[in-house]
Amino acid sequence: MDTTSVPIAERIAEVRAEIERACFRAGRAPDSVTLVAVSKTHPPEDIATAVRAGVRQFGENRVEEALPKMAAVAGLVNEPVTWHMIGHVQSRKARHVTAGFALLHSLDSVRLAERLSRALAERAGALDVLLEVNVSGEETKHGWDAYSWQARAAARRVLWDDVARILTLPGVAVRGLMTMAPIVDDPEEARPVFAALRALRDALANDFPAAAWDHLSMGMTDDYPVAIEEGATLVRIGRAVFGPRVTT
């Protein structure tokens, strides 16, 4: 069925219904999962439509696109909106992420964490972050190497050492993990990746109990029901909410 003309409000209703169905199968409360609508390339007017349909959390991939869009949306709606940075952030752009974003999903290096900490110190602020880890082993993915982390002592040691360092940095508040699953035809093929992220989170929470490890950001349009069944607390949904990505 061609869904390109389906109104955004109807799309959101279906996504929320699918989240509820997945939570039911997993024995979870629907409010344990937060829908983060990925609004990259979509105009402020579409985001305002999603806000009026009840969405309050939005994810952007590029700082330079996000900042003017955030200002535009503020002028279109009265409801409070929370912004997430979900894309790769270059260290030199760390300062821009420390204002306006409630959560950075893609902290992928100690260097970036240190840059964030310095920028946050200048304004006496704090930023919630998720550590991006590559549990699929794909070379194209960002994040710490966590492929087969249970069997690879060296990779585990690097990750554990880096986490210990990041947890000492003022202003950088670790809240959990994020990963990108491979693009596959059958969502079930992504299940081992989601399960591996959950197991990694549990291991880190055991060894670093002083930090909060509440969140697992995993699952996108094609596989988010499986991600929810495996413990996702944040699902990053773009196409299922806004339709095909706008290209310029």
Task: Give structural notes.
40% of the residues lie in helices and 17% in strands. It has a single domain, classed as TIM Barrel, CATH 3.20.20.10. It is globular, with a radius of gyration of 18 Å. The longest helix is centred in the N-terminal third of the chain and has 19 residues. Strands 1, 2, 3, 4, 5, 6, 7, 8 and 9 form a nine-stranded parallel beta sheet that branches. α2 packs across α3. By secondary structure, it is an alpha/beta fold.
Find the CATH topology.
TIM Barrel
Sheet with the most strands, sense and barrel status: 9 strands, parallel
Mean pLDDT: 94
The CATH superfamily appears as Alanine racemase
End-to-end Cα distance, whole Å, is 25 Å
Helix content: 25-40%
Q: What low-confidence regions span 5 or more consecutive residues with pLDDT below 50?
A: none
**How many domains would you count in the coordinates?**
1
CATH class label: Alpha Beta
Number of helices: 9
- Total strands: 9
Query: Which structural category fits the helices and strands?
Result: alpha/beta
Approximate shape? globular
Order of helices and strands: HEHEHEHEHEEHEHEHEH
Residue share in β-strands: 15-25%
Rg value = 18 Å
What's the arrangement of secondary structure elements?
Elements: H1 8-26, E1 34-38, H2 44-52, E2 57-60, H3 63-74, E3 82-85, H4 94-97, E4 103-107, H5 110-122, E5 127-134, E6 144-145, H6 153-166, E7 172-178, H7 191-207, E8 215-217, H8 224-229, E9 234-237, H9 239-242
Parallel strand pairs: 1-2, 1-9, 2-3, 3-4, 4-5, 5-6, 5-7, 7-8
Helix pairs in contact: 2-3
